[in-house]
Amino acid sequence: MAPSGPDFSTGLCPETRTTITCNRPQQTITRFGYDGPMTVPRPIVILGSGYTGHWIYELAQQQSLPILASSRHPETRLPDVAPDARIRFDLMDPSSWAGLPSQADLIWAFPATPLEQVQLFARHYCLPSLRLVVLGSTSAYDRADPTAQELPPWIDETSVINVDLPRVQGEEYLRTHHGGIILRVAGIYGPNRNPVQWIRQGRVGPSTKFVNLIHVEDLAQLCLLALKCGQPGDSYNISDGHPRRWAEICAEVSRRWGIVSPRQADHSEPGKRIRNQKVIAQFSYTFRHPDLYPALQSLNMEPGP
Ligand SMILES: NC(=O)c1ccc[n+]([C@@H]2O[C@H](COP(=O)([O-])OP(=O)(O)OC[C@H]3O[C@@H](n4cnc5c(N)ncnc54)[C@H](OP(=O)(O)O)[C@@H]3O)[C@@H](O)[C@H]2O)c1
User: Fold this and answer.
1) Phi and psi angles of residue 240, each rounded to the nearest 5 degrees, phi first
2) Separation CA 88–CA 99 (nearest Å)
């Protein structure tokens, strides 16, 4: 599905009117100091810095990017963020919006709902020159399908999305009205979000349902790359590209670690198979964790919490 909506190139500041490539320099704001003109990179704000936000923050710091992180309770929820990089932001509380820098690029890392509040905030804050990355979910492709097959078809970014879902309405508004770059994210795993533990606890079992996963380290890399390389108003599937049936994962986890889910086998849902070729091609990205099992091996060697 081709992106629809306004042409964002017309509203961009001069240095962004050219085609955006992955080698495109950071947008800059000009400041005048004692030694004459100098440029400083525009800050990036992580709106809603939870599990993924923490990883984005760490990665941006490693890359010396100017990064700020928001929470509704910054003093207690952002202990690993430098105090001067913490922002109090609550989508539901407009008085908190003034705490954002006057010009920043945004990585929106919580569900973009409710629509009316998303619209109010975006109209208030999102200048045409802003770069906006929004973390959506592959659940956007969930639809009641009476013709569901045992082997579900592959889904790419042209597949139909379910605009009845509230978060999809928010994402589509941001995409079509504010040039939001939508990342449709598969199930996130990584340290402290370990599928082996999900199996042990019976949160998942040996069903024939397909699951699509992404390691949080790859997700964090792709969020920062999306700010640089993503096409405004476009969407990208974010998954490791290897959908697997839970039954297959359970069997491998049992073989490697002797851990078995207390759940019974289940054949009721086909799940989805998500393609990720678009993001690989357009962002020139190589996955750090392309294969689930070596990644699980590393997670299981880490000391527990
Ligand atoms: N987890 C998955 O497997 C998965 C799969 C697909 C997509 N996603 C999506 O990917 C994004 C990141 O996932 P995640 O698991 O890293 O999320 P997360 O840990 O829940 O972090 C999001 C943070 O956003 C903040 N937040 C929530 N509501 C807010 C509001 N109204 N205004 C301002 N901040 C708000 C919360 O932090 P404070 O309480 O500190 O404010 C929350 O911790 C989310 O949009 C999620 O739905 C997740």
Assistant:
1) -75, -5
2) 7
Ligand 1 atom closest to Cα of residue 188: 3
Backbone angles phi, psi at 198, to 5 degrees: -60, -40
At 27 the pLDDT is 46
Higher-pLDDT residue of 40 and 98 is: 98
CA 19 to CA 8: how far, in whole Å? 12
Domain boundary assignment for the chain: 16-188+215-241+273-292
Cβ neighbours for 193, distance < 8 A, ≥ 6 positions apart: 51, 216
Q: Which residues sit with their C-beta closer than 6 Å to ligand 1?
A: 48, 50-53, 71-73, 77, 89-92, 109-111, 135, 137, 185, 187-188
So what CATH class is 16-188+215-241+273-292? alpha beta
CA dihedral 146, 151, 156, 158 (to 10 degrees): -30
**pLDDT, tens digit, 9 for 90 and up, residues 178-212:** 999 999 999 999 999 999 999 999 999 999 999 99
List pLDDT tens digits, range 112-144. 999 999 999 999 999 999 999 999 999 999 987
Q: Which residues, other chains included, contact 212 with Cβ-Cβ below 8 Å and sequence gap of 6+?
A: 138, 186, 187, 239, 240, 243, 271, 272, 273, 274
In terms of DSSP H, where are the helices of the chain?
Answer: 51-62, 74-77, 115-125, 166-178, 195-200, 216-229, 246-257, 277-283, 292-301
Tokens of 279: 């993001």
